[in-house]
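Aim 2 progress update. The chain analyzed this quarter is reproduced below.
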Amino acid sequence: MQNNTPFGSPLAVPAPPQLGDKISNIATQVKDTVSGFGATAANTFDDNREAAATGMKDAASTLHQNAGSMSGGDKLTSMAHSTASALDTTADWMRENSSAKIMADVSSLVKRNPGPSMLAAIAVGFLIGRTFSRNNNG
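Predicted structure tokens:
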């Protein structure tokens, strides 16, 4: 009887593609996709960095101007001026640094101060959530 199988033997099975190669290819594709997202996020951040810095400068200026007229005494006035100065400094830092440098600085700050960083993130998240819920409710 003649063997008519394409692989020469009735028991021959084509070798499966190497699993390691497939996994490596998928990992490369995922890495490239994530890198693309990161680059897009960095570009978006860089595009909006100047506007954010300008907004902080404006807020700092307004806070400095209104600090003296706040009720609450000298301590509140001093705190308002300190906050305005911090906003002003942060705005300058944002203008002077690339997104990569800013992310490295923030990452370093979070690593050195994980507890306060977590509390700050929760507070910012809460404020953003309240802002959006107010905008959606009316």
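The radius of gyration is 28 Å. The chain has two domains: 21-96, 98-138. These observations will guide the mutagenesis experiments scheduled for the next reporting period.
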